[in-house]
């Protein structure tokens, strides 16, 4: 066994054991622990999607809350009004988010850099204003979606919520890893580094940017539906809150942008800080802000980059040899 592959293989074994342990939690964990695990996994899914866009695709979006909100309102339309069970709505929400992402892509992709970032935020605000002014989804007052889980006991609901969160969190991580190991992943990172050079090499820049944008929109919408199943009430302001995107930003930057390990480390760091400091009010927010600035100034690749600087470990090796070494 090659020594450079040992950490990755150990991590794979630990990952499988962790997935099995999390999947079994409904039979042994307390409700508060189940709720926390669900939130952690959901935020991991969102962070992996933001990292895919910004860290690997160079698409600095500050409007992903728009797709989270659409996922939440898919729960209202297809669950509350059409009568589908809440957990059947989650994949439908993914389709809604992907379609919305595809529709707005021609607009936001006309922009670049800071203009792209502002454009994605404007799109999210348009989504929020539309939902806030649609009477059939209760407008700005919001509505309860408890009816979508009516008849389901609490233990079953929490178990299904956790399993969906596990599928999204672990699935998003695995999907990004497999993408980056493919030729599409190589093309995506080439586009991030230089669109002009990528085009000269035959990379279809517009197509690959469109694909990751739509995929991220779909996963964010599915996660939004899941998160609001746990809240049982949907309203425009919390559903389309920019806090969703700022949390993704914090997690990815702290953990290490442009690495698969970064969102995992960042998610753990975020929830540890939240559990330790949430009762301190503004001190909690100040700590998050100062931590982000320190990492951005002194540790460009985040906590994971600091770790790999000294050990050189890769838990998710995505670099491939294209041929035998020279000589």
Task: Explain what the structure shows.
The chain has 327 residues and is mostly helical. Helices cover 72% and strands 1% of the residues. Helix 2 runs antiparallel to helix 9, helix 3 crosses helix 9 and helix 11 crosses helix 12. The protein is globular and about 50 Å long. The protein starts with 5 loop residues before the first helix and ends in a 16-residue tail after the last helix.
Summarize the structure.
This protein is mostly helical and 327 residues long. Helices cover 72% and strands 1% of the residues.
Number of strands: 2
Share of residues in helices: over 70%
Q: Helix-strand pattern, N to C? A: HHHHHEHHHHEHHHHH
SS field, number of helical segments:
14
For the largest beta-sheet, the strand count, sense and barrel status come to: 2 strands, antiparallel
How do the strands line up in the largest sheet? 1-2
Distance N to C terminus = 22 Å
Form type: globular
- Average predicted local confidence, pLDDT: 89
Q: Beta-strand percentage?
A: under 5%
**Helical/strand content category:** mainly alpha
As a whole number of angstroms, the C-alpha radius of gyration is: 20 Å
Unreliable stretches covering 5 or more consecutive residues: 321-327
Q: Topology, pairings included?
A:
Blueprint: H1 6-23, H2 31-56, H3 65-81, H4 86-108, H5 113-132, E1 143-144, H6 154-181, H7 183-193, H8 195-200, H9 205-231, E2 233-234, H10 236-239, H11 243-255, H12 261-277, H13 282-298, H14 302-311
Antiparallel strand pairs: 1-2
Q: What brief labels describe this structure?
A:
two-stranded antiparallel ribbon; 72% helix; mainly alpha; 327 residues; 2 strands; disordered C terminus
């Amino acid at each position: 066994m090659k020594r450079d592959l040992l950490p990755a293989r150990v991590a794979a074994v630990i990952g499988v054991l962790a997935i099995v342990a999390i999947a079994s939690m409904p039979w042994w964990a307390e409700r508060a622990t189940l709720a926390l695990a669900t939130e952690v996994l959901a935020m991991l899914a969102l962070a992996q999607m933001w990292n895919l866009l910004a860290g690997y695709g160079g698409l600095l979006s500050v409007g992903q809350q728009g797709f989270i909100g659409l996922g939440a309102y898919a729960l209202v339309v297809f669950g509350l009004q059409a009568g589908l069970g809440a957990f059947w709505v989650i994949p439908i929400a993914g389709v809604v988010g992907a379609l919305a992402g595809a529709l707005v892509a021609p607009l936001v992709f006309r922009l670049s850099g800071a203009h792209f970032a502002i454009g994605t935020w404007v799109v999210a605000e348009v989504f929020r204003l539309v939902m806030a002014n649609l009477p059939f989804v209760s407008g700005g007052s919001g509505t309860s979606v408890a009816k979508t889980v009516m008849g389901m006991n609490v233990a079953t609901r929490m178990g299904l919520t956790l399993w969906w969160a596990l599928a999204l969190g672990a699935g998003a991580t695995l999907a990004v890893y497999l993408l980056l190991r493919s030729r599409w992943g190589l093309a995506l990172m080439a586009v991030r580094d230089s669109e002009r050079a990528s085009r000269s090499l035959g990379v279809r820049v517009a197509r690959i940017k469109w694909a990751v944008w739509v995929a991220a929109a779909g996963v964010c919408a599915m996660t939004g539906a899941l998160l609001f199943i746990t809240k049982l009430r949907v309203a425009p302001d919390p559903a389309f809150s920019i806090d969703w995107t700022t949390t993704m930003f914090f997690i990815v930057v702290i953990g290490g942008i442009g690495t698969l390990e970064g969102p995992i480390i960042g998610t753990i760091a975020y929830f540890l800080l939240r559990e330790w400091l949430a009762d301190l009010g503004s001190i909690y927010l100040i700590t998050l802000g100062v931590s982000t600035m320190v990492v951005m100034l002194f540790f460009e690749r985040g906590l994971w980059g600091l770790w790999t600087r000294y050990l050189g470990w890769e838990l998710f090796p995505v670099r491939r040899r294209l041929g035998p070494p020279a000589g």
